[in-house]
Specification:
- This protein is of the alpha/beta class.
- It has helices at 10-22, 61-71, 85-90, 92-115, 119-124, 157-176, 198-207, 227-240, 257-271, 302-308, 316-329, 331-337, 340-350, and strands spanning 2-5, 27-31, 51-55, 75-78, 126-132, 180-185, 187-189, 212-215, 221-226, 246-249, 254-256, 284-287.
- It has a seven-stranded parallel β-sheet with strand order 3-2-1-4-5-6-10, with helices on both faces. Strands 7-9-11 form a three-stranded mixed β-sheet. It has a two-stranded parallel ribbon with strand order 8-12.
- α1 links the parallel β1 and β2.
- The chain starts with a strand and ends in a 5-residue tail after the last helix.
Length: 355
């Protein structure tokens, strides 16, 4: 049995679904169900006894102790995090509480649990911490991609909070011997993505006839990783990764944001054309850039391929086509996650940015 934290969020939900599609090993899924946690993403597991859902916070030490004592998991995969840069700019304290303090409490409870295991179970136990490439800072256009030894230079409250959590995880290995693993991934995309992030936001706004807001000049470069490839990488690291090591997980797909938006628009033109026969790209609207916006992220994923044999299966062309089609086929899910609170957030973040 494994424990997954944040398993109702975008990447976590995809991981739980993929895990149970590949294995009969049960999953305890602990999620706080904040605005981006959505049990509807796990609706197919509603009557599946292998999926045990618990609503709760990774900062709740008593709950964590109860879960570990009751279920005795052989591994913990920590997805639980506040993860949106724009939200971290408006409300940084939530990111410190969840990403730093939450990770600390999870590590402390896990350490005591692990120390009490029998020798064989103790040796086989793993704690995998899922992190981001944003901890490494920003690259110039010609600089080589981030490797696992790149210095940390976080530039937003979000990335700083994730950097802090990474350092805590590392320290628990070197100080206490806790068998930890860390993965730093590039931008994920795919099914069940909450529509505050670029790709689902573009799809939602395009279909609704609204402007497609692009920060600055749209030339910010990101490496794009299909979420199911990310899930397979995490499974690989849990099973074969070397304790104490970090593995960068990327899609080998560096593209500027404006090209991402144009690609989505082209696919929507193909699969769900506007009633007036105009192109969705006409809805693109450049808005004032966000504070401290990093210019480029790029992941060098050679280590995980060399040591563990993992590499992504999807190109961006194949992954984005699957993603757009999924959103077109799942309009009910998309409508249900766009609550009043979500609309209020969009108004707050984009109001007055038009240029």
């Amino acid at each position: 049995m494994i424990l997954v934290t944040g398993g109702a969020g975008f990447i976590g939900a995809n991981f739980v679904l993929d895990w149970l599609a590949e294995s009969d090993e049960p999953v305890i899924n602990l999620d706080k169900l904040t605005y981006a946690g959505n049990l509807e993403s796990l609706a197919s597991l509603q009557d599946d006894p292998r999926h045990i859902f618990v609503q709760g916070d990774i900062a709740d030490k008593e709950l964590l102790k109860q879960l570990l004592s009751k279920y005795q998991p052989r591994a913990i995969i920590n997805f639980a995090a506040e993860s949106h840069v724009d939200r971290s700019i408006h409300a940084p304290e939530e990111f410190i509480q969840t990403n730093v303090m939450g990770t600390f409490h999870l590590l402390e409870v896990t350490r005591h649990y692990w120390e009490g295991l029998e020798a064989g179970d103790k040796e086989n136990f793993r704690f995998l911490h899922v992190s981001t490439d944003e901890v490494y800072g920003s690259l110039h256009k010609t600089e080589p991609a981030f490797t696992e030894t790149h210095a940390y230079q976080p530039n937003s409250p979000y990335s700083a909070s994730k950097a802090a959590s990474d350092h805590l995880v590392r320290s628990y290995y070197h100080t206490y011997g806790l068998p930890v693993l860390t993965t730093n991934c590039s931008n994920n995309y795919g099914p069940y993505h909450f529509p505050e992030k670029l790709i689902p936001l573009v799809i939602v706004n395009a279909l609704a006839g609204k402007p497609l807001p692009i920060y600055g000049d749209g030339q910010q470069i990101r490496d794009w990783l299909y979420v199911k490839d990310h899930c397979s990488a995490i499974r690989c690291v849990v099973e074969a990764g070397q304790c104490g090591e970090t593995y960068n997980v990327g899609g080998w797909n560096e593209m500027p944001n404006i090209e991402i938006v144009q690609t989505v628009c082209t696919l929507l033109d193909e699969h769900s054309p506007r009633a007036d026969k105009q192109k969705y790209a006409q809805q693109i609207s450049f808005v004032t850039d966000r504070l401290g916006h990093d210019r480029r992220y790029a992941i060098d994923a050679q280590k995980i391929q060399r040591e563990l044999g993992w590499k992504p299966q999807e190109t961006f062309a194949t992954g984005i086509r699957k993603t757009v089609q999924w959103y077109l086929d799942n309009q009910t899910w998309l409508a249900n996650v766009q609550s009043g609170a979500y609309r209020e957030w969009l108004d707050k973040n984009y109001q007055g940015r038009e240029v």
